[in-house]
Automatic annotation (TrEMBL), chain A:
It comes from Pontibacter cellulosilyticus. Belongs to the FAD-dependent oxidoreductase family. The keyword Flavoprotein applies. It comes from the Bacteria. Keywords: FAD, Flavoprotein. It holds the Pfam family Pyr_redox_2. One of its GO terms (molecular function) is oxidoreductase activity. Gene3D superfamilies: FAD/NAD(P)-binding domain (3.50.50.60). SUPFAM superfamilies: FAD/NAD(P)-binding domain. This is FAD-dependent oxidoreductase. Residues 6-302 form the FAD/NAD(P)-binding domain. The lineage of its organism: Bacteria, Pseudomonadati, Bacteroidota, Cytophagia, Cytophagales. The keyword Flavoprotein applies.
UniProtKB/TrEMBL annotation, chain B:
One of its GO terms (cellular component) is plasma membrane. It comes from Pontibacter cellulosilyticus. Residues 370-398, 402-430 form the 4Fe-4S ferredoxin-type domain. This is 4Fe-4S binding protein. The chain crosses the membrane at residues 20-43, 49-68, 93-112, 138-158, 170-191, 222-247, 286-304, 324-343. GO terms for molecular function: 4 iron, 4 sulfur cluster binding; metal ion binding. Keywords: 4Fe-4S, Electron transport, Iron, Iron-sulfur, Membrane, Metal-binding, Transmembrane, Transmembrane helix, Transport.
Amino acid sequence: MQASLHLVIIGNGIAGVTLAQHVREKSDCRITLVSSESATHLSRPALMYVYMGHMRYKDILPYPDWYWTKHNLTQLHDLVTEVNFEKRQLILQNHDPLSYDVLVLATGSCPAFYNWPGQDLEGVQGLVTLQDLQSMEGNTKGIKEAVVVGGGLIGIEMAEMLRSRGIGVTMLVRDQLYWQNTLPQQEAKLISKYIKEHGIELLFQEELASINPDAQDRVASITTKSGKLLPCQFVGIATGVKPSINFLRNSALETDKGILVNEYFETNLPNVYAIGDCSQFQKPAPLAPAVEQLWYTARKHGEALAQTLTSERTVYNRGPWFNSAKFLDVEYQTYGYVPASWNEEYESLYWEHTSGHKAIRFLYEQKSGLLAGINLLGIRYRHDLCHHWLQQHYTIHNVMQELPAVNFDPEFFQRYEQELYRQYAQKFPEQATPARKSNWWDLRNRFSLFSTSESC
Amino acid sequence: MSTSSSTYSAPLSSITAGGFIKLIGLLLIALGILGMMVAAFGGEAASPVSTGLTGIAAVTAGGLMYIWQVRRQKSVAEQNNGAWQNDMTTRGASAWVTGVVLTGFYILLYWFPTTLHGLVLAVEPLSQWLRNRPADHWFLYGTFYTLAILVMGVHALLKYRNSNYHIIRTISVMFFQLGFAFLLPALLLALNQPEFYFSYFWPLKYDYLFPGTVSYLIDNGAALGVFMVFWGAVLSFIATPILTYYFGKRWYCSWVCGCGGLAETAGDPYRHLSDKSKKAWQWEVAIIYPILGFIIITTLVLWINSWSEGRLLGNLSSGFSSTYGFFIGAMFSGVVGVGFYPIMGNRVWCRFGCPMAAYLGLLQKHFSRFRITTNGGQCISCGNCSTYCEMGIDVRHYAQQGEPIIRASCVGCGICAHVCPRGVLKLENGPRENRFAATPLIKRSDVGILN
């Protein structure tokens, strides 16, 4: 990017900010981040901790004020009402139109509502933005009962938030278990049980039919599709998110669910790109979704597009998948490919602790033994090593040789390699039990799993 | 103790068995405080022992009952709920009252100890039993200090009961305070030996290597005194570098030290109040290293003076002790260090004032295998790590770039790794080769916090 050009990014979430940072490393061009949500970048996954009192709003801002000045990144707190692609101009609500040379759309997601009767009542909301957090603060003041619709990650976050204020929570879950469209049966069972133990009511195979008002047009109850009436003063909608692109709908920009992009994040218009949750791949990579809606993928999009904008046109390569979350106090990590269910081409090694709070799953191809992915509950593994295993096409047998090196739990925590080896020996009696005690630091050196490059 | 109750649950709302235990606990605390006040200010109208010592016992027992019940009712997932919403832990009115009472106590202790006469009398039987000699205000202080670590240690044990690291570490600080900083010195006095704290070393106990102390120990303690001098020198100059090389600063600051022990137990509910700004870091660096330098130079000068039989500087030692003791020992470590817990966080002394922390910090930064590893590209920049860092380190700054956290000030308490909602951080000791290297899974951009 030449210094004379103006890069405008709509959205100051992790995708837009990562892009801005990495473009700034290589270019002196003018960079402006426009956001209607907040004056500066915030950590979206941390919104829940503000509600729960773990942090203040200012604590979830990853960079101090001086950072933006020092790196000459302009932040504009305003709403883009329209983009004039022909004139290369943004129409803003409170400021004069803003001209750009290169436009990157990183507008993120908004909650998906499904036209339920009563969805506009006071006390009904999703949780994605800072504004959602603020309205949740108001909507839940002094209430006793709440319903959360949707058994996914935002659903459990909202439930945990509400519980922290002593509000009774019922979750409507469409499937037979919590997050069953993503988690294999055993993991979903473990988490469902754990959630129930923590005083959150789970109603399985239930969907929202309607939200019913009281005399003041506030939510008073909901009716489920099976006809159950649940009194509640708050309804959290957590049935997924969708790209936040309404203001772009009737423009020259090609959209579907999201803004359509190729593997370079290029849209159908020249010098207009889209990254993060709002983009949709025309041709998604095998096993990858068309719309990637994660913090981690948004960051990777930003890194990849910065490369394209500042040096050479670079194909986005997500690399081995990973994600993490936390269900109340049970941490979840996943690496590679572990779907909710699989056919006979795959086999898995699954271990669960007797406490019911910890589990490890290795999924591998039955014939070749090739590692497909890893699911972890209540156990931490080293990202660098898991990534290496997946990228270097380790078999389950290779993995077992290096198993002791992968654990990332704190010191003095109990280790479970022996239990896994026992399971492994049962499945593969012909394989010798791994003899050598592999050590992370040796592997880190041997495979160069570190970066000493000076940050620039 | 009100720090452990959440804003949103009325602690005494229902008369359950648990509620009853909490009620009795609070009653004992209230009556105990009353008893102690009668002992302190009642002009010996009632026996200070039956009011004061019973009062101390009642506060201890009541505190334990209340803590036990409150923490057990809370799931471990709720460890930090309301930390930024409670009056007591957000510099609210009750925090200021607590801060003023604590600060006031230190002022009385250091400058007006006679006002504590009634309370000193209250612990007289304990002193006679343990030390075979009359109580003084320092014994009273030691008793309070040890009880605070033990009672709030139980609080920390219950709060962090899902982590073996914190359970073992908390038991360690409780053990070292009770055994090495309270019972052992008392036993030495009972046996007519010099009072000596085996868990404090130069330069924190700066005078342990002053010529005056050394000759006093050797003259009064005979063989044991020689051992004490030997112990102090070995711990300061040999054991400290070796232990810090293998384990980092934490072996001392969050496992052994009494100041750290109080911070990790009684001070734990205030850890998020530490200042995370760049300015605070600049102050830290500007204060703590000059204090260390001052002690090193003074110690050297005192020895030169001693070898030259006072020809060089005359009687400087006592002048130094009173000046440094006033500004650093009393003002800093006591009044500000502990008195301001509810206002400035629990590690003000360790962060800005402690010469031992400065010494250990230099070793940790440059000659140690210790680091806090960031797990690949998993940081979500939430800020829990930075918020709950009692030393005011902006942990997130490193974590979100996939870098290990290697900072001189880090005391290795491990709370950042514990509060991280994605399990991204791990305290560990590993080879020094590529110790500062980051994960290859994230592209980094330099922010340069302190340059």
